[in-house]
Amino acid sequence: MQRQLKRNAVLGVFLLVVVLYLITFSDFLISQKARSSPGGEPVWDRLSWKSWSGSDAESWVDQGGYLPLNVSYQVLAGTPAAQQKFITVGLASIKRNKGSYLLHTLRSLFSRSSPEERSDMTVVVLLADFDEAWRESTVGEIRASFHGELEQGQLVVIHVPLKFYPPLRGLKRNYDDAPERVTFRSKQNLDYAYLIHYSSGLGLYYLQVEDDVVCAQNFLTSIRKHIQEQYGKSLTWATLEFSALGYIGKLYKSVHLPLLARFLFLFYQEMPCDWLLAHFRELLTQKERILLKPSLFQHVGSFSSFQGTYNKLRDKDFEEGAYFNPPADVYSDLSVYADHIPRLAWESGEGFFWGRSPQSGNYLTVVFRAPAVVTGVKVASGKEGKDLVEAAAVELGQGIQTTEKGEKSCKEFRSLGPVENGGFKAENMQDELGSPSSCLRIRFTARQRDWVVISKIRITTKS
Questions:
Q1: What are the start-end ranges of the H helices in 200-300?
Q2: Is there a contact between 373 and 434 (Cβ–Cβ < 8 Å)?
Q3: 32-299: CATH superfamily
Q4: Which positions ≥6 away from 267 have C-beta within 8 Å?
Q5: Tell me: the pLDDT tens digits for 208-260?
Q6: Helix residue ranges, H only, 320-450
């Protein structure tokens, strides 16, 4: 009897392995079918863009021709560029009960990017609603507003027919969610799985956003810089986050997209997509979130795509005018706490300058490497309401010289005004300051018992 049970168990395992192999092989064959396009021409599966014969890939993951999904796409507008771009930006959109933010989001993506940035970016929009009249109307609006972007391969609009979706009703009610809510979030997971699957190989990196966001100025340049910094740290990373909210501003390496698409597909009914992404990150051995600040994307939708409910989520760390200050050297005669050195107040990112109790006459001086006409200045201090600058003046200087300490500074300074309530802001200064400046200085004007944090110094200059 025991021998018979053991024989049956071995046979069962063998049959299971055979079935799994056949399923995988069947999926692979299906993936080789051509995608449909408006002109009837075949559009081959994007996962086959790399050859399996390559010998220079780091691992089988980098080969890119695995884990295909049984799905065909309708290309509604635009054609991806033949050459791989630096980044693909993906978003899915459905018909909303209360207004649409899609066109506003697309305008933000393109208008907040320079011509050079737009040439290195492809935006893929999945119209994921099964209302054909809505899709046709939306495509018409996109064609009218973004004709140039469609012509240049910077924008592609796609759709996946309902027949390629697995069951969307009668699903598991995890977390005691209502059936309608389970259907909505499960379909959203599938939408993202298909969107990510299509986008694989279009760019070196993939950025997931939602259809109701605005972007920081030159967000792509900021993303490039942060990617370089992460590689410089020699850390293993699977996801970089440029917003703390939902599935907004999440960046992936393109070689991981087939894994991510299949992951979302397999577990589509288990939990919301932003919870699944945390598990995916951990499975790829990135234990902690890498949340980069300031945020580059802000949620602006007032009404949810689910039943039109009011949604007031906003990212407190978003900076609409995110940019990089010009190159400069930064000096201070304050005693520095730990590694919170002066230049961290000048550079973008989460760092800040933290100095011990200032006296009257202490300073933090920024010396520009090239003179510039300053048109705006913003200074922020403190951390969580503590260690604010209490008494200081913000000044611009001209005529670089070397001090007795061997530091660079300026010969002459003029005051722009005092720091009040821990901060300073001046705009539209070009009328007052026609000539270039070489320095910006924060000069403390009174003794301060508390330590001081200067979290942000930002300037705008005349181009």
A1: 219-232, 257-266, 273-283
A2: yes
A3: Spore Coat Polysaccharide Biosynthesis Protein SpsA; Chain A (3.90.550.10)
A4: 189, 276
A5: 999 989 999 889 988 998 898 888 786 789 999 999 887 899 999 999 999 99
A6: none
What does the alpha-carbon distance between residue 371 and residue 434 come to, in Å, rounded to a whole number?
A: 12
CB 257 within 8 A of CB 200: yes
Looking at the DSSP bridge assignments, the partners of residue 366 are: 330, 440
The CATH architecture one would assign to domain 328-461 is Sandwich (2.60)
Question: Which phi-psi region, left, alpha or beta, contains residue 249 (left: φ > 0; alpha: ψ -120 to 50)?
Answer: left
Domain ranges for the chain: 32-299, 328-461
**Helix runs in 78-213, H state only:** 102-111, 115-119, 132-145, 147-151, 179-199
Buried b (16+ CB within 10 A) or exposed e, 409-448: bbeebeebeebeebebebeebeeebeeebbbbbbbbeeeb
CA-wise closest residue to 172 among 263, 55, 270? 270
Task: Please indicate, yes or no, whether the overall pTM of this predicted structure exceeds 0.70.
Answer: no
Query: Cα(54)–Cα(205) distance, rounded to whole angstroms?
Result: 20
